[in-house]
Amino acid sequence: MNIREEDIYNFIIGRTPILVNRILLRNFRKEKLDITMEQWSLLDLLWKKDGCTQHELGARTFREKASITRLLDKLEQQNIVIRVPDRRDRRVRFVYLTAKGKSIEETATRVVRETYKHAIAGIPEEQVLICKRVLNQVFENLAEEGDHWTACETA
């Protein structure tokens, strides 16, 4: 194989995802949305299924408990979500969208859709599908390592 190591790094975990996140943040700000890509990933799950547990949000976004807590703290401070303890087990907390959280769905989703559309502009669909298959294979290869995330349901 004649692939340079830095090319693999840049493609999979390096500059491309970092740039996408920066552009998304800029585009969220243009629309007066005070959220990050990481927060959006949680909100996207809640827009599809409101009332997820913090554990479920962590599992489905491959984030550790402390990271989920920090993201939710910020979203709660902004009155975008609320956390409600389970009546039977106070260690379990359900996360619900507030009216404000529900109201930003359309704008935030549009921003993400337009940003990704711009990101793949000029790339033939067949190549995008190849990229998707390759990245899915990278995921599967790493999942075989037995990492604790592999037991989690993916979004």
Mean pLDDT: 88
Quickly count the domains. 1
Beta percentage is 5-15%
Number of helices: 8
Shape: globular
Distance from first to last alpha carbon: 32 Å
Q: How many strands, what sense, and barrel or not for the largest sheet?
A: 3 strands, antiparallel
Task: Kindly provide the radius of gyration, computed on alpha-carbon positions and rounded to a whole number of angstroms.
Answer: 17 Å
Number of strands: 3
Largest sheet strand order = 1-3-2
Oligomer: single chain
CATH architecture: Orthogonal Bundle
Q: Give the CATH level 1 class.
A: Mainly Alpha
Structural class: mainly alpha
- The helicity comes to 55-70%
Q: Give the low-pLDDT segments.
A: 148-155
GO molecular function: DNA binding; DNA-binding transcription factor activity
Pfam families: MarR (PF01047)
Keywords: DNA-binding, Transcription, Transcription regulation
Domain HTH marR-type: 1-140
What does this protein structure show overall?
Keywords: DNA-binding, Transcription, Transcription regulation. InterPro entries: HTH_MarR-typ, MarR/SlyA-like, WH-like_DNA-bd_sf, WH_DNA-bd_sf. This is MarR family transcriptional regulator. One of its GO terms (molecular function) is DNA binding. The chain has a single domain, classed as Winged helix-like DNA-binding domain superfamily/Winged helix DNA-binding domain (Arc Repressor Mutant, subunit A, Orthogonal Bundle), CATH 1.10.10.10. Helix content is 62%, strand content 8%. The protein has 8 helices and 3 strands. The protein has helices spanning 5-12, 15-30, 37-48, 54-61, 65-77, 99-103, 105-119, 125-143; strands spanning 52-53, 81-85, 93-97. A 3-stranded antiparallel beta sheet has the order 1-3-2. A hairpin with a 7-residue loop joins strand 2 and strand 3 (93-97). Helix 2 packs across helix 7 and helix 4 packs across helix 5 (65-77).
